[in-house]
């Protein structure tokens, strides 16, 4: 379908923009240019440079407002804000205000006189400007400055006590009318409790662990999320702390038979006879390549196998081999045994003795003089193995060590130099992609800050000339990891703390999903019929990662509403489910949860579930707990609850039956959560509670569908979440429609102080 292009000329600038897109964000364009035409429209009386900023923002609405800007934003942010008011573009206005607040101190010529002359006295930018001027004047103590002669200078003399830096407060603070405190606003509108992300950065919490230790509850952490929910539900029912004796904790799942203290173990003392024979070892290495080779570059196959043949061909030459190769070899064998041996009754995974031996023999990589890329690959292998056995902090520590080495090696850059050949550059890009994907995933699962900011990474996507599928797989993985970074920084960072910011962050993330949805569904389509044959394990992995990101973005709403349902937060928050925007976000969270379970069920039916790599297990937990919570919050949200839960437990039971103790713990804790909620339902009489928009009767969705029956094809949600015949993902158009339909008024309410935030 051809685009409806609007031709605009402002001063010397000419612009061509999509009419529907610009009309969606600006009433000026929606009302002034309602009909398609091919004429060029002239706009006079407005600054061309600020229009240039507006159309640049429109082209890339995922621009980060929280980063420092360059020109022309430094000089024109205030003018751009004024333009946003003229063209009635509230989303652009919010972006401009954030940019101005972040960068005002860097502007070469202060915009203060311009704001005083043009901005309304009660506008947020004027109020921020006045406060900023007064703060600076109080610091200067009467010395000459660029603020001399401005009206706001007098405010410094009238202030009682010290004046704070206004940048400590966010946009929502400056939107509150003058003379209205947060408390009085709250009292004036008690029915509109603030809808915030209780899992965001400033609401960090700790939980008791074994042996009297305390564990940090990371913001986006899956484990922390589950523990928060289980603790809250248990304490609501019993009034007592949650017993921790039988719960899942990092590093306490498997007994590796080693305390981490290195024995006097050298290469010469290693008994090579304990290693598998050549044929079986080759089978194990090939299994690692089959399971991980497309997703990660854990080793360079050609180079590694040459050393493999040397090792098994002539033991007299072993002393000439790289000391790090033995370690790498043992780790890959450990992976191979874990993949090949499907059922284990041992207290440790198959092959763990090889991993322990590798760690005992690990040289000091700081002092070891060898190829840095080889060292990074060994560390990636160690980190992934630790992640598989639920030693997540240790895994993150190792991957950060690898990141540090990579930064010093420069493989995070474009690597353009006459001294670098193409083969080496491709190798580095493959290794960096592995490192980047693992670090983003591990940081998210722990809920800790990212090691490297996106703006410092300029590595192009790796291109494998002889393997187009791998090229496409890595590109999608990297794009999903970039979205994961955005979720981590915005939804769970400072951007996620307040109402308008949480909405902006969520809307931006949904737009990012729309950018990769087509590529994912076209290049990695999977059948939605559970009887489909030949499902691609790679495609399933990518779709699972994609939908987990959607759940991660939207599940703070579930946590907030569950808090309210349990009496741990303002009861009026549940009324927000009557808002179409809020309900749509909850529905897309559940829709992705359903699709995760569908994919895992297909993999289960075809014997393709991962019993050692953690990705399927993470997906099963993410989807299941979301459905359990939603069914407690509002019975009309979940269609055919038992259907989805039974399928999810079937997946968890299958993984645990293969010797995965982590899956056993996760299944146990989810069932414990269900049982506790059942007791609460009976005690509180929740069986007939529903907060569906429009007062829907109990047991029906908005379209009247019985909630105990499987939904008709395409009937989930509100229509835009219907399934396509051959994919498990929303189309770009559906995601953009959802992002653009989110109503900021559903979220934007008076700000409360941090002390009022509910954990």
Would you give an account of this structure?
This protein has 759 residues and is mainly α. Among the domains are: 5-175, Potassium Channel Kv1.1, Chain A, CATH 3.30.710.10; 201-238, no CATH class; 257-460, no CATH class. It is 53% helix and 3% strand. The chain has helices at 19-25, 27-32, 48-59, 73-86, 90-103, 112-118, 124-140, 153-158, 171-175, 182-188, 222-238, 278-292, 301-313, 323-340, 352-361, 372-388, 392-409, 422-446, 468-491, 499-523, 537-565, 580-605, 615-633, 641-657, 661-684, 732-741, and strands at 5-10, 13-18, 40-42, 205-208, 214-217. The strands form 2 sheets. Strands 2-1-3 form a 3-stranded mixed beta sheet. It has a two-stranded antiparallel sheet with strand order 4-5. The longest helix is centred in the C-terminal third of the chain and has 29 residues, at 537-565. The protein is globular and about 85 Å long. Residues 180-192, 687-728 and 745-759 have low confidence and may be disordered. One of its GO terms (biological process) is DNA-templated transcription. Keywords: DNA-binding, Nucleus, Transcription, Transcription regulation. This is Xylanolytic transcriptional activator regulatory domain-containing protein. Its main location: nucleus.
Notable traits:
single chain, 759 residues, mainly alpha, Potassium Channel Kv1.1, Chain A, three-stranded mixed sheet, two-stranded antiparallel ribbon, 5 strands, 53% helix, 3% strand, globular, disordered C terminus
């Amino acid at each position: 379908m051809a685009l409806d292009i609007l031709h605009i000329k402002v001063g010397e600038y000419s612009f061509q923009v999509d009419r529907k897109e610009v009309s969606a964000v600006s009433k000026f364009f929606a009302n002034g240019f309602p009909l398609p035409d091919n004429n060029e429209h002239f706009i006079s009386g407005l600054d061309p440079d600020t229009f240039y900023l507006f159309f640049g923002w429109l082209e890339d609405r995922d621009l980060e407002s929280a980063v420092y800007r360059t020109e022309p934003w430094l000089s024109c942010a205030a003018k751009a804000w004024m333009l946003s008011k003229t063209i009635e573009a509230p989303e652009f206005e919010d972006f401009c205000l954030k940019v101005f607040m972040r960068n005002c101190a860097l502007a070469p010529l202060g915009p203060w006189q311009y704001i005083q002359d043009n901005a309304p006295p009660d506008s947020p930018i004027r109020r921020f400007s006045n406060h900023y001027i007064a703060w600076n004047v109080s610091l200067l103590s009467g010395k000459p400055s660029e603020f001399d002669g401005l009206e706001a200078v007098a405010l410094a003399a009238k202030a009682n006590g010290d004046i704070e830096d206004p940048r400590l407060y966010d946009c929502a603070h400056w939107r509150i009318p003058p003379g209205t405190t947060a408390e009085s606003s709250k009292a004036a509108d008690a029915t509109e409790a603030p809808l915030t992300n209780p899992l965001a950065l400033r609401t960090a919490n700790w939980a008791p662990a074994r042996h009297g230790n305390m564990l940090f509850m990371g913001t986006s952490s899956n484990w922390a999320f589950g523990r928060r929910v289980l603790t809250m539900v248990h304490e609501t029912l019993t009034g007592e702390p949650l017993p921790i004796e039988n719960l899942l904790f990092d590093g306490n799942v498997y007994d590796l038979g080693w305390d981490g203290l290195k024995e006097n173990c050298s290469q010469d003392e290693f008994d090579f006879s304990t290693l598998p024979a050549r044929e079986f070892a080759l089978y194990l290495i090939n299994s690692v390549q089959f399971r991980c080779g497309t997703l990660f570059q854990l080793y360079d196959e050609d180079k590694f196998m040459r050393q493999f043949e040397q090792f098994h061909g002539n033991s007299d030459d072993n002393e000439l081999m790289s000391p790090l190769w033995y370690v790498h070899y043992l780790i890959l064998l450990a992976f191979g045994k874990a993949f090949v041996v499907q059922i284990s009754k041992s207290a440790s995974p198959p092959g763990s003795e090889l991993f322990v031996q590798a760690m005992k023999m690990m040289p000091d990589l700081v002092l070891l003089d060898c190829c840095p890329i080889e060292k990074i690959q060994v560390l990636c292998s160690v980190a992934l193995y630790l992640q598989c056995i639920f030693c997540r902090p240790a895994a993150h520590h190792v991957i950060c060590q690898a990141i540090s080495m990579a930064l010093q090696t420069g493989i995070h850059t474009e690597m353009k130099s006459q001294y670098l050949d193409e083969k080496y550059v491709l190798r580095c890009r493959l290794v960096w992609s592995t490192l980047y994907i693992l670090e983003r995933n591990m940081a998210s699962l722990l809920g800790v800050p990212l090691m490297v900011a996106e703006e410092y990474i300029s590595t192009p996507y790796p291109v494998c000339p002889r393997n187009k599928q791998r090229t496409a797989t890595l590109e999608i993985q990297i794009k999903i990891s970039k979205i994961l970074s955005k979720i981590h920084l915005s939804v769970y960072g400072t951007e996620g703390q307040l109402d308008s910011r949480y909405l902006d962050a969520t809307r931006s993330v949904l737009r990012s999903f729309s950018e990769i949805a087509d590529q994912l569904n076209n290049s990695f389509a999977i059948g939605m019929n559970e009887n489909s044959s030949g499902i691609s394990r790679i495609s399933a992995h990518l779709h699972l990662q994609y939908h987990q990101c959607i759940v991660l973005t939207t599940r703070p709403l579930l946590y907030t509403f569950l808090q309210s349902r349990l009496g741990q937060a303002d009861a009026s928050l549940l009324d927000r489910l009557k808002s179409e925007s809020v309900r749509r976000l909850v529905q897309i969270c559940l829709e992705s949860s359903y699709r995760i379970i569908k994919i895992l069920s297909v993999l289960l039916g075809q014997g393709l579930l991962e019993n050692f790599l953690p990705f399927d297990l993470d997906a099963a937990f993410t989807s299941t707990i979301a459905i359990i919570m939603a069914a407690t919050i509002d019975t009309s949200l979940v269609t055919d609850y038992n259907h989805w839960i039974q399928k999810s437990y079937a997946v968890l039971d299958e993984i645990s039956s293969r010797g995965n103790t982590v899956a056993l713990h996760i299944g146990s804790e989810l069932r414990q959560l269900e049982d506790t909620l059942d007791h609460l339902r009976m005690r509180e009489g929740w069986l007939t509670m529903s907060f569906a928009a429009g007062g829907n009767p109990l047991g029906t969705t908005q379209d009247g569908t019985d909630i105990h029956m499987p939904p008709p094809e395409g009937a989930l949600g509100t229509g835009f979440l219907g399934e396509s015949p051959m994919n498990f993902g929303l189309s770009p158009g559906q995601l953009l429609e959802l992002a653009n339909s989110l109503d900021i008024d559903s979220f934007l309410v008076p700000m409360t102080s941090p002390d009022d935030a509910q954990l």
